[in-house]
Amino acid sequence: MKIVDLIKRDMVVPALKATDKRGILEELAVYMADHHPKIDRATLARVLVEREGLASTAIGEGVAIPHGKLGTVSEIVACLGRVTAGVDFDSMDGAPTHLFFVLVAPESSTGAHLKALARISRVFKDPEFRKRLLLASDADSMYQVVTDEDAKY
Q1: Are 110 and 122 in contact (CB under 8 A)?
Q2: Hey, how many other C-beta atoms are within 10 angstroms of the C-beta on 74?
Q3: If you write DSSP's letter for every residue of 23-88 in order, what string do you get?
Q4: Can you give the residue range of the structural domain that contains 84?
Q5: 71-123 pLDDT, tens per residue?
Q6: Distance CA 134, CA 141 (A)
Q7: What span, in angstroms and rounded, lies between the C-alpha atoms of 48 and 53?
Q8: Taking Cα atoms as reference points, which of 4, 135, 142 lies closest to residue 81?
Q9: Secondary structure (DSSP) of 117-132
Q10: Is the N or the C terminus of the chain less surrounded, counting Cβ atoms within 10 Å?
Q11: CATH number of the domain residue 118 falls in
């Protein structure tokens, strides 16, 4: 599975404005709903906030992978967001979180959803990849970093 199979170019947000966890989740939900006709922003925000309430999706090293399931989508929908200054996202390592890769899967999805989570967490463990994403000048550049990384596999 490649990340570019999950994310489209218009689903990259290089400058999220929120400064706290709930705000980030809500901002990403609004963005995803504005770019995908089958996603309701309030429902997605609720799903992401509820999932985050179980345990933080911040995996450390400045990365979080908020995720949830919706009955209205028929395939995995993804969005990549960035906060250059970082946000407290209750990360395992206590460090600020800068990169947010949101996954929204169909309610019936299990295997594909778990494979996607595993793939994303594996790729985002690479410090050079994270650095290139943080230094990218805009959404197109961030998407190109993802494309270049996928080409290695």
Answers
A1: no
A2: 10
A3: HHHHHHHHHHHHH-TT--HHHHHHHHHHHHHHS--EEETTEE--EEEETT-SS-EEEEEEEEEEE-
A4: 3-151
A5: 999 999 999 999 999 999 999 999 999 999 999 999 988 788 899 999 999 99
A6: 10
A7: 9
A8: 142
A9: HHHHHHHHT-HHHHHH
A10: C
A11: 3.40.930.10
Distance from C-alpha of 93 to C-alpha of 86, rounded to nearest angstrom: 14
Owner of token pair 């179980």: 54
Say if CB 8 and CB 76 are below 8 A apart: no
Residues linked to residue 64 through DSSP beta bridges, in sequence order = 58, 100
Number of domains in the chain: 1
**Catalytic residue flag (residue 67):** yes
Amino acid present at 16:
L
Residue 47: both structure tokens together:
């799903």
- Annotated catalytic residue: which of 35, 36, 67, 113? 67
- The two tokens of residue 106 are 């169909």
